[in-house]
Design goal:
Blueprint: E1 20-21, E2 27-31, E3 41-42, E4 49-50, E5 55-58, E6 67-68, E7 73-82, E8 88-96, H1 114-124, H2 136-140, E9 150-155, H3 164-171, H4 173-187, E10 192-197, H5 201-212, E11 217-222, H6 231-239, E12 254-258, H7 259-271, E13 277-283, E14 291-296, H8 301-307, E15 317-320, E16 327-328, E17 342-346, H9 348-351, H10 364-368, H11 375-383, H12 387-392, H13 403-407, H14 414-434
Parallel strand pairs: 1-14, 9-10, 9-12, 10-11, 13-17
Antiparallel strand pairs: 2-8, 3-5, 4-7, 5-6, 7-8, 13-14, 15-16, 15-17
Helix pairs in contact: 3-5, 4-7, 11-14
Bound molecules: iron/sulfur cluster (2 copies).
Residues 369-371, 373, 375, 398-404, 414-415, 418 line the site of one iron/sulfur cluster.
Length: 438
């Protein structure tokens, strides 16, 4: 089996830029939903004094995580904000006192076994930092540890522009491997594979040097073919295992964890400081001086652009993440989130979608889909509301990577249609269930 993909322009302009800490903003806005799952429950009120690391939102339900203050200061307001998804979520605003004082509650956890390790990761507030935002402690909380044959560390970073994971491998290699040691010690995992695209020479060299000194770690250099970092693609290309339809990597004995997430776990175990800041790549055709910056979570994204010299051209569109899978930032004052690894500001030329023309039946979309889906067929089925056909076309397998749209000479909005078609399929399956036919 061959998993397909596409060659995209890498634009890793900032790979050589060591992250620079930006000045603490006057105010941060910390939403209670920066993860997959139920929003956290606010445990502070207006006027409360907080310090860096103070718990401000507690886990609410199983799939949820705690949230912590990223600056010291005073809770200035609590109100709903609109996220990129259009969802309204409560957020805690903190006026910074500029002192950046650390909470007295911060102390390193002392895990002694698997459960206390998972509990510590839970307390850290860490979520999948590659952009997924799934609570990490849930991913690690495996019922039967004997099922895990290997951990695949996702260091592919295949999206154009983004280099924050690359910087983790260069600047925090020690923590990546401390995270590996923690996985060995508390979870008994014996095999780790670090999957890196071949366009990250320095990171490959450093990871290779550390791996040579560590038992059970292999660095797998992968072709720079997008979407190499897609979970199913990466697992296949590093282990040869195929994750079954609708299944998780665990179904084939694998845990996939992002490389920066791994490093953050190790840092938390050492310092006790929960996830309160992020390294973010700031780039795009509108940005004057692209760079990697470290910013407190909740910092308005406009402050990141200011730290990078502002704009050389009027930004027409700003997105969280890379241009293939990124989502629009609702406003320049929108905050840096836990899973924000990049903010990209595009000028008009880069942001303007090309003109759409009729399909010429070239088959490019099908040929380049990693899962051999038929985006053209999906579009036809969606347009006539045919749920049965969407089910047969396996649209639910679509990972919204955007390869099909990218290669379509007619510039059809294929990935956008797939997103809507997945919703349509869910509605169809729900109504089918209701009718008792399934
Ligand atoms: S159909 Fe989905 S998975 Fe396939 S290329 Fe398009 S967006 Fe990617
Ligand atoms: S790539 Fe575009 S033009 Fe070609 S078959 Fe697919 S939808 Fe049609």
């Amino acid at each position: 089996m061959k998993l397909h993909g596409i060659k995209v322009q890498h634009r890793k302009n900032t790979a050589g830029c060591a992250p620079v800490r930006i000045p603490v903003p006057d105010e941060v806005c910390i939403p209670m939903s920066m993860h997959i799952g139920k929003p956290s429950k606010i445990v502070v009120k207006r006027g409360d004094e907080v310090k860096v690391g103070t718990l401000i939102g507690e886990r609410d339900g199983f799939v949820s995580v705690p949230v912590h203050a990223s600056v010291s200061g005073t809770v200035s307001k609590i109100e709903d904000i609109t996220m990129s998804t259009g969802q309204k979520v409560p957020a805690v605003f903190i006026k910074s006192d500029g002192l950046n004082e650390k909470s007295e509650d911060i102390k390193p956890p002392v895990p002694t076994d698997f459960q206390s390790f998972v509990d510590a990761v839970n307390q850290s507030g860490i979520v999948g930092l590659g952009g997924a935002g799934f609570p990490t402690f849930i991913k690690l909380n495996v019922d039967d540890l004997d099922k895990i044959e290997e951990v695949v560390i996702n260091a592919a970073e295949c999206e154009p522009y983004i280099t924050s994971d690359t910087r983790t491998m260069i600047d925090k290699a020690e923590y990546v491997f401390k995270g590996i040691e923690a996985g060995k010690k508390y979870m008994g995992i014996k095999r780790f594979i670090i999957g890196i695209e071949d366009n990250k020479k320095e990171a490959i060299k450093i990871m290779g040097e550390y791996a040579a000194k560590t038992d059970g770690v292999e660095v797998k250099v992968l072709p720079s073919i997008y979407p190499q970092g897609g979970e199913k693609v990466l697992v296949y290309n590093t282990t040869g295992k195929i994750i079954p339809k609708g299944g998780l990597p665990l179904a084939v004995g694998v845990i996939v964890i992002n490389v920066t997430t791994m490093a953050n776990i190790a840092e938390y175990l050492e310092t006790g400081m929960p996830l309160v800041e992020k390294c973010v790549t700031v780039d795009g055709s509108a940005v004057k001086e692209p760079a990697n910056v470290i910013a407190p979570i909740g910092t308005p994204v406009e402050k990141l652009f200011e730290a990078c010299g502002g704009f050389k051209r009027e930004p027409s569109k700003i997105i969280y993440g890379g241009p293939m899978m990124g989502i629009s930032v609702p406003s320049a004052s929108a905050p840096v989130l836990k899973m924000t690894n990049a903010v990209i500001a595009m000028d008009e030329k880069e942001a303007t979608p090309p003109k759409t023309t009729p399909c010429i039946n070239c088959g490019n979309c099908l040929r380049h889909c990693p899962f051999k889906l038929d985006p053209k067929g999906i579009m036809s089925a969606y347009n006539i509301g045919d749920g049965e056909a969407l089910e047969a076309l396996n649209v639910d397998l679509c990972m919204e990577c955007g390869c099909c749209s990218y290669v379509c000479p007619a510039k059809r909005p294929l990935v956008q249609t797939n997103k809507m078609a997945k919703v349509k399929l869910r509605e169809y399956l729900a109504s089918k269930k209701e009718e008792g036919t399934k």
